[in-house]
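Lab notes, practical 5.
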Amino acid sequence: MISIFVASLFGSVYARAPLITQSDVISRISIVFVAIIFSCVINLTSVLEVIATERAVFYREQAANMYRPIPYALSFTVAEIPYLIFSTLLFSVVFYFTVGLDSEPEKFWFFWIYYFLTIGIATFTGQLLASAAPNTETAASLGPLVLQLWNLFCGFLISPANIPNYWSFMYWLSPFHYCIEGYAATQFHGNNQIIQVATTKGQISMTVEAYASSYFGGEYKYSNRFGDIVALVAFLVALNILRALSLKYLRYINR
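Output from the prediction step:
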């Protein structure tokens, strides 16, 4: 399966790497960040052609008063969830333990929840674009753009404190913000291992938890871990509502 391949590919790059220096901490965040982005691209693009084909069927059946937008959109959501649970859990098990992330069960389950919800958001974003765009080509062009915007403003590539004020709203609208915050905050919470950190004043000693927090300017907080889950669930609900509305009010029929 693709999940096993992707997990093995990225996991093998960083298999059982040590956590000794500040670069090791950054690497553990980076490999998760890249793996999640890669998985999101795959899931978003893979649904476009399927949904575009099904949309034509929906238009035909709706004209015959057989389908309604909300039940139809809901049925796709319900059908997708078991697959997402299975594939993301499979990925998480292979990737998490190959990389050698923290072995505490609670931290693993947090990782899986954030990954599951984020992949779900990417999948349902693909469904929304395929339903709302006039054709598959347009949806395929918009998909990477949306992911790149989420990627750029999530707070990892640019520290939250350094995002310009006029772009700060994108920080809160990026699902990757909540995913990476949840992962980083829970993964390094309670890790009191001492590492040497290079600063403008020379080398200083910090715990892994303190350094991970300082790397994001103190914006990524352990106390937000459940709020991050709520935010990701809200994205899932909003995407499905928008998809139902697009099916109801947007129609692209060639006669």
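Observations recorded by the TA: The first helix runs from residue 2 to 13. The radius of gyration is 20 Å.
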